[in-house]
Amino acid sequence: MAVLDIVRMGHPVLREVASPYPLAEIGTSTFTKIVADMRDTLHASGGIGLAAPQVNIPYQLAVIEISNTSSRYGEIPALPFSVYVNPILTVIDVAVAGYWEGCLSVPGMMGYVERPQHVQVDYLDENGAAQTMILKGFLATVFQHEFDHLQGHLYVDRLKDPALFAFDAEYRQFHQGDRQELAD
Ligand code: ZN
Predict the structure, then answer these.
(1) What is the domain-level CATH number for residue 84?
(2) Is 38 inside any structural domain?
(3) Which domain range does residue 77 map to?
(4) Which residues surround ligand 1, an ion (CB under 5 A)?
(5) Span 59-79, pLDDT tens digits
(6) Deepest of 41, 69, 101, 176, by most Cβ within 10 A of its Cβ?
(7) Is 18 helix (H, G, I), strand (E, B) or coil?
(8) Using an 8 Å Cβ cutoff, are 7 and 18 in contact?
(9) pLDDT digits (tens, 9 = 90+) for 13-56
(10) Looking at the DSSP assignment, which residues form a beta bridge with residue 98?
(11) Is there a contact between 85 and 57 (Cβ–Cβ < 8 Å)?
(12) How many folded domains does the chain comprise?
């Protein structure tokens, strides 16, 4: 187990389309170690999601965990630690809602982003089994943020308004409470 270095905006790996994770490698010791290290890194960072490119692993792999101690997220249901391999996200309803988002690869900043709030995710779990989830509201935003990382996108590409992009301190001073937030 190990806490991995998180790469920051400007590192080319964050702008590449990640490769599909090789199916034959799901469940191998290499895979298990990557997942364990990403879990340790997620926990050490205090985030709620981490995509493999953020730790310089250019594959379509992400982990998400929302604990019910995350009171900052209000009434959001807890989501146990889960692994998403080669996910495909489909928008079910294009109606959007916005949250202030943060990103471990863009430390110290927050930005307001609007995204569709009803999506479907098809993916392989850590055992290689095909799964489907329907996500609404905040969770729909969380999954879009994470899976954007697998396509070379960062939330800063999707800011609603450049004026709604702020350092943490200015966010807290001038914007917090205006809208809901997501930090991952
Ligand atoms: Zn991120």
Answers:
(1) 3.90.45.10
(2) yes
(3) 12-183
(4) 103
(5) 999 999 998 654 455 567 789
(6) 101
(7) coil
(8) no
(9) 999 999 999 999 999 999 999 999 999 999 999 999 999 999 99
(10) 114
(11) no
(12) 1
Rounded Cα gap, residues 46 and 103, in angstroms: 11
CB contact at 8 A, 21 and 59: yes
Does some domain include residue 179?
Answer: yes
Q: How far is the CA of 62 from the centre of ligand 1 (A)?
A: 11
What is the CA(149)–ligand 1 centre distance, in A?
A: 7
Identify the helix (H) or strand (E) that includes residue 120. strand 109-124
- Residue whose C-alpha is closest to residue 67's, from 84, 47, 51, 92: 47
With beta carbons less than 8 A apart as the criterion, state whether 150 and 13 touch. Answer: no
Q: How far is the CA of 38 from the centre of ligand 1 (A)?
A: 14
Query: Token digits for 110?
Result: 């927050």
For the question of residue 146 being annotated catalytic, the response is: yes
Element of type H or E holding 154: none
Within-domain flag for 164: yes
Q: Would 6 be classed as within a structural domain?
A: no
Cα separation of 70 and 142, whole Å? 14
